[in-house]
Specification:
Layout: H1 3-19, H2 22-30, H3 37-47, H4 65-77, H5 84-95, H6 102-110, E1 115-118, E2 124-125, E3 132-137, E4 140-152, E5 161-174, H7 178-207, E6 209-210, E7 213-214, H8 219-244, H9 248-273, H10 284-296, H11 301-315
Parallel strand pairs: 1-3
Antiparallel strand pairs: 2-5, 3-4, 4-5, 6-7
Helix pairs in contact: 1-3, 1-4, 4-7, 5-7, 7-8, 7-9, 7-10, 8-9, 9-10, 9-11
């Protein structure tokens, strides 16, 4: 990680620590828009979170995909409900047009507009709050100039989805492979969630006492948590590589690795926390739900595996 990117990560982490603790996340879940609008404003004004992938000449920060992934990883760590993923993907879709809409991009970069990119109209991230919607289908991008949306009930309370239908459309151009970029960004978010999930589990095993000693001191549990740490570290390395070079193969590999890591850590976290993990007051069940919700988002693991197999065979 570059020095500038580490500073970006630290800034986002500081904002999340101050403004997105467990109580704040739960308040955001129950709010009308599903996210903390004041925190979103801070992320846009102090970090430029929504401007990272937009070129400077179009009102953005002129950053790279890895910059956006760094922010999403920190937001994922605390399960912060945020319109950043959908907005970033909508920006990348608009930038793929022969003549990008500068006015719309500037509004998205400022955070005053919210974007969404449609892969499956029945499950659209940010779909219930977006005012800029682009669809990717059959290798083509289409902007939905008019659309309707309705919320979809999901298990993951920290990420709202919506069913979105077009009423008016306008062609944008060729799809540069946004499904791969979306997979990489989602994988980065999953890594952050997995890291925090393991932290919570380690903290709990240090304080939970059985037979007169913390359960974290038992050799069997030390081995299990060491294995979880290695799984996350390995997946993080794969995702970092994909952020730099988001080829179809790298994107699929990152998605699979991050999904497996988060699912495994969340399941182990539930088990090692015992009964407290499934109480409403504890955060562990939110990580478990995020793990399973993210695993089904964009593409299922089976679909990703099939696509990866095809891509690998084509390279031989």
């Amino acid at each position: 990680m570059t020095e500038e990117r580490e500073m970006l990560r630290e800034t986002v982490a500081s904002l999340v620590t101050k403004h997105a603790g467990p109580a704040a996340v739960r308040a955001a879940i129950e709010s009308e828009r599903g996210y903390d609008e004041s925190l979103w404003q801070l992320l846009c004004e102090q970090v430029g979170a929504a401007a990272l992938v937009v070129p400077e000449e179009l009102g953005g920060a002129g950053g790279e995909l890895a910059d956006a992934a760094t922010v999403l990883r920190e937001l994922g760590r605390a399960l912060v409900p945020s319109p950043l993923l959908g907005t970033t993907l909508a920006e990348l879709a608009l930038l793929a047009a022969p003549e990008p809409d500068a006015q719309t991009l500037e509004a998205l970069a400022e955070g005053t507009s919210i974007g969404a990119l449609v892969f499956d109209p029945d499950y659209v991230v940010n779909g219930d709050v977006a005012d800029v919607v682009v669809a990717a289908d059959g290798g083509q991008l289409t902007r939905w100039t008019e659309f309707s949306s309705e919320p979809v009930v999901t298990m993951d309370l920290t990420r709202r989805l919506a069913r979105v239908q077009p009423k008016g459309t306008s062609p944008l151009g060729d799809d540069p492979g946004l499904a791969d970029i979306a997979a990489v960004l989602l994988a980065a978010e999953q890594i952050g969630a997995a890291e925090r999930c393991l932290d919570l589990t380690v903290e709990y095993t240090k304080s939970r006492v059985q037979f007169g000693r913390p359960i974290g001191s038992f050799q069997a549990l030390k081995h299990r948590m060491a294995d979880l740490y290695v799984a996350i570290a390995a997946a993080r390395a794969v995702v970092d590589d994909a952020c730099i070079d988001p080829t179809p193969i790298n994107a699929a590999t990152a998605r699979l690795a991050a999904t497996e890591a988060l699912n495994t850590v969340a399941a182990e976290g539930i088990q090692l926390h015992g009964g407290i993990a499934i109480t409403w007051e504890h955060d562990m069940h939110l990580y478990f739900k995020r793990a399973h919700g993210s695993a089904q988002l964009l593409d299922t693991t089976r679909d990703v595996l099939r696509r990866l197999e095809t891509q690998v065979l084509q390279t031989k």
